[in-house]
Design goal:
- By secondary structure, this protein is of the alpha+beta class.
- The chain folds into 2 domains: about 30 residues; about 80 residues, Translation Initiation Factor IF3 (2-Layer Sandwich), CATH 3.30.110.
- The chain contains 3 helices and 10 strands, in the order E-E-H-E-H-E-H-E-E-E-E-E-E.
- The strands form 4 sheets. Strands 3-4-10-5 form a 4-stranded mixed sheet. A two-stranded antiparallel ribbon has the order 1-2. Strands 6-7 form a two-stranded antiparallel ribbon.
- The two termini are about 40 Å apart.
Length: about 130
């Protein structure tokens, strides 16, 4: 009997069937399932935000990643960190990011809701736990 740790699925397997090919297929299936689960979790916990008051509320109400415009200055980043304890996790390389409410353009220029200055695009903010 085999039991996979990622989903607790059990399946009878004859000992003679367990070879390098079976192990490779099993590990590939486990890797795909873990990746799909992690990706679904990330999407469900990533939200776009265009208002600083909403941003601050969302950090408490629904923790995860928040995509928000940033003017690119250390001054604004420091203000956000001091007021919310959130920091920039990354500047996305992708043009769009899947969020809980659908795809969001990362490269579309906008306005930084903290400083009111122009923003070249969105970055991912989050708190460390």
């Amino acid at each position: 009997m085999t039991v996979f740790r990622h989903d607790r699925a059990k399946a009878p397997v004859k000992a003679v069937e367990i070879d390098a090919g079976w192990l490779e297929r099993s590990m590939t299936a486990v890797q795909r399932a873990l990746h799909a689960r992690a990706e679904a979790f990330r999407i469900a916990n990533t939200h776009a935000c265009d208002d600083y008051a909403v941003f601050k509320n969302d950090l408490d109400a629904r923790p995860g990643f928040l995509l928000m415009h940033w003017d690119g200055t250390a001054e604004t980043e420091t203000k956000i960190k001091e007021e919310t304890k959130a920091t920039i996790r990354c500047i996305p390389l992708a043009d769009t990011i899947q969020t809980s409410s659908g795809p969001v353009s990362v490269r579309t220029p906008g306005v930084d809701p903290v400083s009111g200055r122009p923003s070249a695009g969105r970055v991912l903010f989050a708190r460390a736990y």
